[in-house]
Amino acid sequence: MHDSSATNEPLPLELLDTVRIAQCEHGLKHSEFRAYRIYCTRKLHRLYKCTGMTHKTGPKGKFRRRPIVASDVHDVRVLQVPLLAAERAWAYAMDIKNEMEQSNAPYKRRHMVKRLSRAHVHAKELASLVAARSLDTRSTVEADAYLHWIAGSMYLEKGNNWEVALEKLSHAHCVLEELSKVSNYNQLVSIRYLLDRIEPAIRFCEYELTRAGVQFTTPRGGDAMDAATASKFRELSEQVGGTGDRADGADEVRWNGESYPVTEGRCKNKVQVAAGLVADLEVQAANGGDNDNVDELIQMHDRVVNAYADARGAVRSALQLSSITNDQQAQLTALGRAIHGVELEWTIKRNAALAKTMEDRLQGFLMRKLPGSAFNRAKDGKDKLARPEGLVRTYENLAANVTTLSDLAAESGGTQGERLMDICSAKLEHFRAYRCYFIAHKYLSSAKYAEAHGLFGRCLKRCTAAAKLVEESTEMEMDTKSEISALADKANAFAAVCIAEYRAAQLEQSQTAADAIDKVSLADQPPSSAEHMMVNSLGSWKSFADASSVRISGIPPALPYIPARPIVLDGAIVGIEPPVLAHRVIEEPSSNTSVVSRIFGWS
After folding, report:
1. In this structure, what CATH number is given to the domain that contains residue 73?
2. CB 274 within 8 A of CB 308
3. Which of 3, 21, 257, 274 could be stapled to 307 by a disulfide with Cβ–Cβ 3.0 to 4.6 Å?
């Protein structure tokens, strides 16, 4: 028995998150409905045992199902029983639907509709338990949306009442859209997952009604919700407070000094996800931006960029619909351009932060190159040493991003577009100067001092051009001007280093050659092996000039072995007496014998 105080405690169900995680991890990522149905069956058996909700048998072993009442809901796992039962029936129906593509037998359609009806019964049971248990408002709203989605899917597959199916699915769609305004990032992912299943079904119902010539209007926004559901949303908005305000602010996209409204539902959800990630990133950056969490900040930048890329994909999908008007098409085109611009701006911020981190790590690589450096690899080895090649690639990506952003500004046109193009021109010259600087470092580390000096000079010219463009633009920050000035100072200093290193290398080479020539003489010296003779090493002077004792050639020279033909003494044959072999000679028969004598062997 469970006490009443424990029964009155709130139980957060998190229905949408539970459904999304279960489906993605157990087969539905690859549309394997049978594997997901097997998982639901096994999970149900475990839930029955751990919650004590096992069924009973009546007389003569007859099965008696144990119903779940509100007083039994002492644990959130009890609510998962009807949820997983509905999921199992729905997965069974979808598995039968896939089989119908090979053989469209009538009994399979009836079986599929029965399974969806069973899923509707379990979903209705779940919604009644949630309402009777008085759970938190969010769980109640999610259960209501889930129930209407299952009901809409059932009427959709029956195919005899498209209006009711459209009404149910539109109700679930509107509830989820309103719920997304008061949700965090993880909850938005689950909401978007279910919306991706509902939206194609709504379009199919609209197509069938249009085909049948039925006049209809698809409910949008609050029109699809009753007064009770609307009051729950008001209560939920008061509970979450600032989260709803932040989501409402994502109804428009601001880029290049202009605002672009977001009216399409799928695009709005994607923009809300991106806005939530931007807010989280700003909070993380405000807490601290030291080297310990710089990798985490770059990962958060990646998530923001990916979120805006998804929003741009949603705009492209909306543009492919045939039902949009010319005005809507122009509005979506401008919105897609704005989202692309914001995506590029965050990509530039991400690559700039990565370049700054790699530049700090490059100091370790440069210190290792210095003789007598106090760089401690064991102490500083926690950070990977960056190389100039990596920074060159990073600044090439930055230059490509700025070029694309400048082209986008040219498409938008107007005064704001020209202003952004001027900023992009200054940034492009700035990033190219950095690229020359790090290419020069690559040549400097390879002891190619002439090429490095020329590239450092090229970097100085680009810094001068970038500084001029920054002065002409009033929108550039003061940090950019100081960065250009610092880069020019470093390039000038390393150009002097190239001259000094080149002169030192020349002096060292001439001194080494002079010392080696002084050791070469024809005087008597101790014997040396033939491998260290000058005549045997004419291809490389270093192989013998650095030795302590050098010989040009051995005197007298060593006699080489010359191959010759073998000598045969013909006079030796005269003294050899051959043996007598006359007794071994076989006498030939006489030719005057008759034929009969030769046949019988007569002599």
Report:
1. 1.10.3450.40
2. yes
3. 274
CA angle 533, 539, 543 (to 5 degrees): 50
Candidates 147, 153, 180; CA nearest to 274 is 180
140 and 75 inside one domain: yes
Q: How far apart are CA 471 and CA 180, in angstroms?
A: 45
Assign 579 a pLDDT band (cuts: 50, 70, 90).
confident
Establish if 562 belongs to a structural domain.
no
Same-domain pairing of 38 and 154: yes
User: Which helix or strand (DSSP H or E) is residue 148 part of?
Assistant: helix 137-158
pLDDT at 221: 56
| Digit-coded pLDDT (tens) for 383-437 | 566 788 888 899 999 999 999 998 988 888 777 888 888 888 889 999 999 999 9
Specify which residues 500 forms β-bridges with. none
Q: Which DSSP string corresponds to 42-64?
A: HHHHHHHHHHT---EE-GGG-EE
For residue 37, give every residue at least 6 positions away whose Cβ sits within 8 Å of its Cβ, in sequence order, or none. Answer: 88, 91, 92, 95
Q: Residue 397 has which token pair?
A: 């990506």
Could you give the C-alpha distances from 378 to 301, 375, 384, in angstroms and in order? 31, 9, 12
- Give the end of a domain, one of 207, 240, 273: 240
pLDDT at 82 over 50: yes
Tell me how far apart the alpha carbons of residues 478 and 571 are, in angstroms, rounded to a whole number.
Answer: 109
Boundary residue ending a domain (317, 350, 383): 350
User: DSSP for 390-428?
Assistant: HHHHHHHHHHHHHHHHHHHHHHH-HHHHHHHHHHHHHHH
DSSP 576: P
Domain count, the chain: 3
Amino acid at 69: V
pLDDT reading at 94 higher than 90? yes
Give the domain range for residue 465: 395-511
- What share of residues in the chain are helix, strand, coil (percent, to 5)? 70, 0, 25
Specify the DSSP element, H or E, that contains 507: helix 478-518
Confidence bin at 67 (pLDDT 50/70/90): confident
Whether residue 235 is found in the same domain as residue 290:
no
| Residue reference for tokens 């190389």 | 387
206-263 pLDDT, tens digit per residue, is 888 888 888 777 766 555 566 666 666 666 655 554 444 444 445 788 888 788 888 7
User: For residue 558, what are its two tokens?
Assistant: 């060593």
Mean pLDDT score of the chain, rounded to an integer?
A: 79
- Would you tell me the crossing angle of helices 185-212 and 137-158 to the nearest 10 degrees? 30
Is-contact 443 494, C-beta < 8 A? no
